[in-house]
Amino acid sequence: MLMGSYQHNIDPKGRVIMPAKFREELGDVFYATRGTDESITILSAESWEELSKKICDLPSAQARNLRRFVFSSAAELIPDKQGRVLIPQLLRDYAHLDKDIMIIGTGSRVEIWDFDRWNKYNDEMSESQVLEVMNMYDI
Length: 139
What we know:
The chain is globular. It is built from six helices and eight strands. Strands 1-7-8-4-3-5 form a six-stranded antiparallel β-sheet, with helices on both faces. Strand 7 (100-107) and strand 8 form a beta hairpin. It has helices at 20-26, 45-56, 60-71, 89-94, 115-124, 127-136, and strands at 2-9, 15-17, 30-34, 40-44, 75-77, 84-86, 100-107, 110-114. By secondary structure, it is an alpha+beta fold.
């Protein structure tokens, strides 16, 4: 289970240290793509394959925008000996990553956010919105 929040920095070359707990869960090779809310989504190789198959199995006319969104920005990430991964410029631009970032676990995925955008998102999220979803799914 991918969970927790880690504040890190992105270096001038676009490298990020992926927390060790996340690297253990994600494996030796994992994948990054544009996520929702202008964040980056990180998936294990197994989860990436599952997602790719689901998207590719959708009818072409209905899924072409989704395919373009996910696959055009996707990148394979391989941590170096220090646990750093290079986030491609396209993804850094999309998520507004400059220096301070948050790396969060969301159960089956990891998300990378600009630190200030993450804090703003959390400030705008209300307890009533969370409770509404919990009630809808009887959690």
